[in-house]
Write a structure and sequence with these properties.
By secondary structure, the protein is an alpha/beta fold. It has helices at 41-49, 76-81, 99-105, 113-126, 128-132, 143-155, 173-190, 201-207, 225-230, 232-237, 249-260; strands at residues 2-11, 15-25, 30-34, 57-66, 69-70, 84-87, 161-165, 193-198, 210-215, 218-224. It has a single domain (2-230), classed as Rossmann fold. Helix 3 packs parallel to helix 6.
């Protein structure tokens, strides 16, 4: 469904943000992309969705393929029309529009009005609080309500694949679990493939099928969600189960193993 092959990316023709990233998202799967701040997670999503160009960045090497089409360098609206939607970090809404108007923005490429209305009610089924807030100006919504809104807005485009950037950011533990449960439900019921970026590795791996760990713009580890949960280096650096910690925890662990050999 989605494949990155040796992708490198730069900002302003100078700052290298990605250094040969290769990953794939198989159809119907949830794949987690884990890493600390500045590791390159969000840049990876922007390289896929075409938003990299809007921030002065570009793919300098490698290919991005989605459902048989090469999309590296494609404009964001073209990527959306192919069925790939990027839900950005920070719960970005149109603050002067109502909740329902925000949701309808997600369907702006669609011509099937009856289908749009059915899907709108389907979104309210996934996120019941939004139905009672359908006429509320979205700038006054809480953080959790805005997160529901941006995921729902993305779903209104009927995507084949969603890129979700830090959906748990700033949310309380109980709401994080609610959002994760809904993401899994969307994956199962809508057959939507998902690439999930998360600093909360434990949360991400609880619903993912497969995962990648990225550090300093490179993928340093990959495996099934179960294997990553049980990997000592991931436990120490990202799950808080050891005392190594830090962005370079995996590299330190790897170097230690090499020295011991």
């Amino acid at each position: 469904m989605l494949r990155l092959d040796n992708v490198s990316a730069v900002y302003s023709h100078i700052i290298q943000a990605l250094k040969g990233v290769s990953l794939q998202v198989e159809e119907g799967r949830i794949v987690a992309l884990l890493g600390a701040n500045g590791a390159g997670k969000s840049t990876t999503l922007k390289a896929i969705s075409g938003l990299l160009k809007t921030e002065g960045g570009e793919i300098s090497h490698g290919t991005v393929e989605f459902n048989g089409s090469m999309i590296g360098g494609m404009r964001p609206e073209g990527v959306v029309r192919l069925g790939l939607v990027h839900v950005m970090e920070g719960s970005v809404v149109f603050p002067n529009l109502s909740t329902e108007e925000n949701l309808m923005v997600g369907a702006h490429c669609r011509k099937d009005r009856a289908g749009v209305r059915r899907d709108l009610e389907h979104i309210y089924d996934y996120f019941p609080p939004l139905k009672g807030l359908r006429h509320r100006t979205s700038g006054y919504l809480s953080g959790g309500e805005r997160q529901m809104l941006v995921i729902g807005r993305g779903l209104m485009a009927r995507p084949k694949t969603m890129l979700l950037d830090e959906p748990s950011l700033g949310l309380g533990p109980s709401l994080v679990q609610d959002i994760l449960n809904i993401i899994r439900r969307i994956n199962v019921e809508e057959k939507t493939s998902i690439l999930l970026v998360e600093q909360n590795a434990a949360a991400a791996l609880s619903i993912a099928d497969f995962g990648y760990v990225i550090e300093s713009g490179r993928v340093v580890l990959e495996g099934t969600a179960e294997n990553l949960r049980n990997d000592p280096s991931v436990q120490e650096s990202y799950l808080g189960l050891g005392d190594t910690g830090g962005v370079n925890g995996y590299r330190r662990e790897k170097s230690s193993r090499v020295r011991q050999r």
